[in-house]
Amino acid sequence: LGIMGGAGMEPTISPPDTTAQQDSLFSMTDLFLISLITGLLTYWFFFRKKKEEVPDLPKMQTVAPPPRDSSFIEKMKKTGRNIVVFYGSQTGTAEEFANRLSKDAHRYGLRGMAADPEEYDLSDLSRLSEIDKSLAVFCMATYGEGDPTDNAQDFYDWLQEADADLSGLRFAVFGLGNKTYEHFNAMGKYVDKRLEELGGQRIFELGLGDDDGNLEEDFITWREQFWPVVCEHFGVEATGEESSIRQYELVVHTDVNMNRVYTGEMGRLKSYENQKPPFDAKNPFLAQVTENRKLNEGGERHLMHLELDISNSKIRYESGDHVAVYPANDSSLVNQIGEILGTNLDTIMSLNNLDEESNKKHPFPCPTSYRTALTYYLDITNPPRTNVLYELAQYAADTGEQERLRKMASSAAEGKALYLSWVVEARRNILAILQDMPSLRPPIDHLCELLPRLQARYYSIASSSKVHPNAIHICAVTVEYETKTGRLNKGVATSWLRSKVPAQNGSSSLVPMYVRKSQFRLPFKPSTPVIMVGPGTGIAPFLGFIQERAWLKQQGKEVGETVLYYGCRREREDYLYREELARFQQEGVLTQLHVAFSRDQAEKVYVQHLLKKNKENVWKLVNDGNAHIYVCGDARNMARDVQNTFYEIVAEFGNMSQPQAVDYVKKLMTKGRYSLDVWS
């Protein structure tokens, strides 16, 4: 442009010789001017426009109006449905409950469909009244600290921003939560309240399922009161007994190209052979285990430290994030199920949805073998829910066993008590039930249809990406216990991870994984003090935090007080990462290390006792130093006891009443200064 400008100015500084010369010069000027203007216009309309539009392209794709398929209203009209059951599900339970409710509908002359809110445009809720006797049910699980599940995030965002008129909407909500968590059933409560605020008509009270108690019983109790209210509202009656309706049909493949058969992939066929980023729940990365060592020196438990290699995966993580791993079931359990049912587990089959309009064509990736399904896709170790028992009852040749199964699946008090004692408390999985009921021999395809999906397991990442950009560290304890029936039950993921030995070759050390972002974050300013409370494997995220603070210190940043309260059973048995912590303390990164050994003395000492012992220092850090508090580990007892201890410290040193102290701590949580990463 500079050169063109210079050429354009040339005539004005040239001496005027002759008219002819001037004419030719002016025509040259004209030429240059035209070129200049053309060039500017070309730049303006094409290049400049492109430059502005490029950053907007991804946005345009995400906010583009959804295709017609995303209208659940159109789908309901097309397929003659009048009840839609949406589910917000992280581990598959809410989806399972939604499927059960949608199947229930046929007993009342109604037709239901289960729907993933991620796949539909939920603003269509305002149009549901276009369908006669229509109803929207929401089975909403709460994840983490009161958060929506991944598949309900968009729905949650829409509800917060929506000013839709839902006055024609009839709805009901069942929430899935856990009372040991601070924000019990937050998502279910929010959806129920917000739909009413937008004008929706609640036709049945909010159900609050508690996974710390008996979630299955909570759901059954709510469900058996829900349907009579629906019947009364629409003036319909039950058409009779609950009947077994198959959702999928079996197709056995005798002549199939093995390259078209799934062998454990979660989404795309052959995705484990041909890995392509980005990696997520539907496309996990196969990470090599480069280290797997036992952490404890004694005791009956096996605590382990694993390192996963994420080189060349483009996976990014931050301290405090979670790593999800997809485990595999124990091959001996799979083989025993095959033997009991007299099945060739290597049969290649597909289970195809009988409802051709359904978005869910198969219950798991198909075609595949029964062996693959039972190993990678189905949960065979958890006690089955009552609907599974009900459906299986028809295959018990012995009438006594058939009645027992039906009773356990009933809503009668006696049946609920039997289910609780015989299945839940005895921790009987499907194999144990088949072993203890010799006449129960269901077709394996129906069993595969009924069993829930095997879910990914989440672990707090025990490393910092600033120090380990190409590795993710896991700290875990293997779960192993004897049941009331004398069987040895093993945790699926931890037993599987324990067997992952670093190897030069082969798949024996590969782990399908992805990273899930978390809100568990270090303060923005490195100079802010942190108080970390994490007994047992709850130390995991704090290893990442301390590594990061050490790195920041090396970069010349001012790093605030870094305080750790850690606990284990015995100093000589299970003091995890003792050497690493001692080194960090020596380097001055870990400014305080308080360790509670619960069983090294007559009276048990836990982390909360050490917090009380140092209460003055704790208060000073929190009140004067604006410290951030982090708690990781067991939700049921430890997290609750630690929180109560903070209430006591705040009340004593802040001269507050108990309610004021509770309010003070809750405000810390709201401000992101008291964070939890807990499990039950």
From TrEMBL:
InterPro entries, A to Z: CysJ-like_FAD-binding, FAD-bd_FR_type, Flavdoxin-like, Flavodoxin/NO_synth, Flavoprot_Pyr_Nucl_cyt_Rdtase, Flavoprotein-like_sf, FNR_nucleotide-bd, NADPH_Cyt_P450_Rdtase_alpha
Record carries keyword Oxidoreductase: yes
GO molecular function: flavin adenine dinucleotide binding; FMN binding; NADPH-hemoprotein reductase activity
Residue segments, region Disordered: 1-20
Entry coiled-coil feature ranges: none
GO-annotated biological processes: response to hormone
Top-level taxonomic group: Eukaryota
Residue ranges annotated for the FAD-binding FR-type domain, each copy included: 282-523
EC number: 1.6.2.4
Keywords, sorted A to Z: Endoplasmic reticulum, FAD, Flavoprotein, FMN, Membrane, NADP, Oxidoreductase, Transmembrane, Transmembrane helix
Cofactor: FMN; FAD
GO CC terms of this entry: cytosol
Domain Flavodoxin-like, residue spans: 83-227
PANTHER family xrefs: NADPH--CYTOCHROME P450 REDUCTASE (PTHR19384:SF17), NITRIC OXIDE SYNTHASE-RELATED (PTHR19384)
UniProt-recorded name of the protein: NADPH--hemoprotein reductase
Lineage of origin: Eukaryota, Metazoa, Chordata, Craniata, Vertebrata
Gene: Por
